[in-house]
Amino acid sequence: MNLMAIESPRGRQGELGQFLTATPVADFMASLFGPLPRTVRLLDAGAGAGALTAAFVSRCCERDDGVRAIEATLYELDGEILDALVATLRECEHRCAGKGIRFTFDIHHADFIQEMSARLAGDLFGTHPPTFDAAISNPPYRKIGTDSAERRALRSIGIETSNLYTGFIALIQRMLVPRGQLVGITPRSFCNGPYFRPFREDFLSQLDLRRLHVFESRQAAFREDSVLQENIIFHAVKGRNQSDDITVSSSSGEHGDEVSESVIPFVEVVHPGDPERFIHIPSAASHARAKETMNGLHTSLASLGLTISTGRVVDFRLKNALRKQPERGTVPLLYPCHFNGGTIHWPRLDARKPNAILDNDETRPWLVPSGVYVLTKRFTSKEERRRLVACLYDPEWVKAEWVGFENHLNYFHAGGHGLERTLACGLFAFLNSTVVDQYFRRFSGHTQVNATDLRTLAYPNRDTLEAMGREMKSLDLSQEAIDLLVTKHLHAR
Asked: Out of 94, 100, 149, 165, which residue is the most buried by the measure of CB atoms under 10 Å away?
């Protein structure tokens, strides 16, 4: 089927959170559906130009596995794309007619979240929410504020989430019939982090997750767009009995590219007893090896007497207290730009960020006493080798009684104070190791590193960390040297 090329203007695209699906991706998504009823009630919410519905129609026509009618319901808010959507659906109609399949469609030029939330809540008199046998979705991606209309609408039916895409998926699964199927492409960000925990619990309690697919390139699915996080495709079936096994696959995202896949126990994807319900996706052999190594660790951060927190200084709230250069009455203020390999380079007068903050009654609650701290970046760039980047702050290098850690940093501490240096060096080595980075990538596909993610990791015991720390003669070790050190001590336990 030849679909017309559609490009959404960047300004409107950003406003709507809209990223249109490439035809090879749409075709792959449609191929994941299992057996379908003779008459399929299909939902395509956030339909765009109709690529997903077209791919679904192609799947039904090519397989000829008993589908005799497709009743498509499509939602699209962008009025400028409706003509293209209608043209695509007319092509679907023609294609189905040639295969003896009845195809009908109903386009709703409406806000899917507002309308469906109202119908599920019973706010629209006399209108019952529709039900569907299949749903295929590339929902819009955009954060929604606590007091936004979308957030209030979702909250009215018990859905608590901070992004449009998870709001769409939560609504869609509520409209599926038992055994109804959902195939979606979304950011991978819902797989971990505290903000998506309510969504994960809802998703995993209502759906039998059958397939997870990841792309080897961050931009493979949406090549023309500035997508900062990985996307995944999932296939799930409405029902509360989770299958024992799940298929995990990966590909480059290019047309005709080979898809590698494996069937693994579901307990390796969502670990039993994990209160955060993180979703791990072991898409590479190195991920499996990392899991095997990490499974041998049983020490929690709390049992080490340590805590991780997000940097306290939110710079725009303390703008009047910030200084470009250190001066009398100020203390160091550290940002990610002060990371210099494994150590801190301060001050950085060539950087755009401030280097100091006034130490007074207003700012003191947001400062920490000087000491040895392990810092990690909360956000890493796409170009950085590791997703997890740790650095050591040592008061021997930066003389001050207090220090400020900006909000884009996480810091490990002991009850609000610094760490013993040998322990800190061992923790630094462990966090910067390839095995931890590969394990982290199993459940995190975006550039953000949450404190919760690090809090839930298993760590070597104190003796092992201190033994690593004693061997750290320099923090400026190569990746190979760090990996050799960490491997040696983890295997010696």
From this structure: 165
Cβ neighbors of 251 (< 8 A, separation 6 or more) are 28, 213, 215, 216, 220, 257, 258, 259, 260
Query: Within 302-398, where are the H helices?
Result: none
Side chain identity, residue 108:
H
* Residue whose C-alpha is closest to residue 108's, from 135, 73, 141: 73
Query: Helices 462-471 and 479-491 sit at what angle, rounded to 10 degrees?
Result: 140
Cα distances from 223 to residues 22, 220, 341, in angstroms, run 9, 5, 31
Q: Element (H or E) spanning 373, and its range? A: strand 373-377
Residue with tokens 């007497």: 305
How do beta strands 260-265 and 231-238 pair?
Answer: unpaired
Whether this model's pTM surpasses 0.85: no
| Annotated domain spans of the chain | 10-283, 302-491
* Distance in angstroms (rounded) separating the CA atoms of residues 30 and 28: 5
Please identify every stretch of the chain with a pLDDT value under 70, giving residue numbers as ranges. Answer: 1-19, 123-127, 216-229, 253-256, 283-286, 381-384, 445-447, 493
What pLDDT, in 10s, does the model give residues 121-168? 886 655 678 999 999 999 998 899 888 999 999 999 999 999 999 999
Q: Tell me, what amino acid is at 487? A: T
Rounded to whole angstroms, the Cα distance separating 405 from 316 reads: 14
- Which pLDDT score, from 0 to 100, does residue 279 have? 92
Joined together, the tokens standing for residue 418 give 């610094």
Same topology between domain 10-283 and domain 302-491? no
- Could you give the count of Cα atoms lying within 13 Å of 55 in the half-sphere of its Cβ? 25
302-491 fold = Adenine-n6-DNA-methyltransferase TaqI; Chain A, domain 2 (3.90.220)
To 10 degrees, what angle do helices 479-491 and 434-443 make? 90
End-to-end CA distance of the chain: 59
Q: Which residue has the tokens 């900062």?
A: 228
Q: β-strand 102-108 against 69-75: which pairing, if any?
A: parallel
